[in-house]
Amino acid sequence: MATSNDEFPIIDISDLDLSSGRSSSQRRVADEVTRACREWGFLLVKNHPIPAEDIEEMFALSREFFQLPEEVKERYPITKRSIGYVGSFKDRGKDDKMSMWFGGVPGALSSSESHDSVPEFWHQHVAKVEAFKHRCHDLVVGLLECFALALGLPDPKFFADAHREDAGNGNSLRMLMYPARARHDERPNDHRKDTDEEGSRMQAHTDSGSVTLLFQRAPGLEVLSPDGETWARAPHVPGCILINVGDALGFWSGGQLKATRHRVTFEGLPPDKERQSMAYFGAANPDTVLQPIVACGEKKKKMDTYYSNGFELVPGITVGELNRMIMQGIYGAAFESSSSKKQEDNKTLEAERGQATTAVV
Q1: Where is this region: Disordered (predicted)?
Q2: CA-to-CA distance for 152 and 194, rounded, in angstroms?
Q3: Which of 13, 41, 92, 314 to pair with 148, CA 20 to 30 A apart?
Q4: What is the pLDDT of residues 231-252, one digit of tens each?
């Protein structure tokens, strides 16, 4: 059972300057945001730079899409480029939610290569989706500079420079709909895989990337409290964005920033209640080598073994390897690499590991 928590961090980021790049103006925001991510791994931000009308437009389009017949949506299954649709109970966790993924670098959604992966409904709205993703990316970069500043890194762009918007498969926007169902609707027994007997809307997990921005229209998300034992209901505050740290950044920071488990249960979001949300997953470029940084005064302290959703992370793993590992575990064959690709990746990894150094701050 999850409980309400009055201590859940809510931070005003109006001082966050995304244009000047001068970290001195971000000191208050940097300290408060980083403190929250050390303790909770989650926080709500208010007075953020993403226009409310843009968020509402994305929600309206998302709702319209999810109301289309299932046979129309399922013609566009998710691809290894993180573009496409996943229906309820279709991932390996058998979660009761629908999602539409928009991965890719700027321009990818309108390219001929992605044309058949993007549902026809979205063809006329691609420019709006791309613009929204760009605004989200700018906010993620600003937060990454805050983390570097508060952690005392000599370069405030240490994390941010590894998050180029035009590299790899870019970052992903995921639109989600937890459908309302009549209480007498049956859910097959093999869908009941959460810790409670009734199953889950979204199984407990950590995100695999760097920073996630979650836009929500209703409450329902639960996060593991700092005590590591009890679940707390994440507040839903209109106008705020819920922020959380992913495993790549948690590992890269040497555990100084926390990637926290979170979930949506049928207890917190009953079957007859609907919940709509959007998640933007900010990730470092695929060839980024993750070498945990070491804090001052702890130069000889070895980082404890780090796990991401059951997978052990080792120093030198690349972001691309981590992402494939996690996505393949969730969605299966769509993210499996060919043997030649794996061999090429292994050679690249070995070369990068030989060149990588550990940052000490």
Answers
A1: 182-207, 341-361
A2: 40
A3: 314
A4: 999 999 999 999 999 999 999 9
Q: Within a domain: residue 325? A: no
Confidence of residue 182 (pLDDT cuts 50, 70, 90): confident
Q: Is 91 contained in some domain?
A: yes
CB 163 within 8 A of CB 48: no
Res 168: pLDDT: 82
| Stated pTM of the model | 0.86
What pLDDT was estimated at residue 280? 98
Cβ-Cβ contacts under 8 Å for 2 (sequence gap 6 or more):
222, 230, 231, 232, 233, 265, 267, 268
Overall domain count for the chain:
1
Mean pLDDT of the chain: 84
pLDDT at site 22: 54
What CATH number is given to the structural domain containing 260? 2.60.120.330
- Here the contacts of 165-169 (C-beta below 8 Å, separation 24 or greater) are 165/105, 165/106, 165/134, 165/137, 166/105, 166/106, 167/105, 167/285, 167/286, 167/287, 168/105, 168/285, 168/286, 168/287, 168/320, 169/81, 169/82, 169/103, 169/104, 169/105, 169/108, 169/286
**In a domain? residue 359:** no
Copy the structure tokens of residue 52: 């409310």
Rounded-to-integer distance, Cα 76 and Cα 231, Å: 35
Nearest to 223 by CA among 245, 251, 253: 245
Q: Which amino acid is at 41?
A: G
- Of 63-77, 135-149, 301-315, the one with minimum mean pLDDT is 301-315
Q: What is the pLDDT of residue 183?
A: 61
Asked if residue 88 lies in contact with residue 96, where contact means CB atoms within 8 angstroms, the answer is yes
The pLDDT of residue 170 = 79
Closest CA to 49 of 283, 285, 172, 213: 213
The pair of structure tokens assigned to 54 is 């843009």
**Which residues, at least 6 apart from 341, have a Cβ–Cβ distance to it below 8 Å?**
none
**Spatial contact of 127 and 155, defined as CB atoms under 8 Å apart:** no
- Does residue 110 sit within a domain? yes
User: Residue for token digits 């390996």?
Assistant: 92
Q: Are 277 and 217 in contact (CB under 8 A)?
A: yes
Per-residue pLDDT, 188: 40
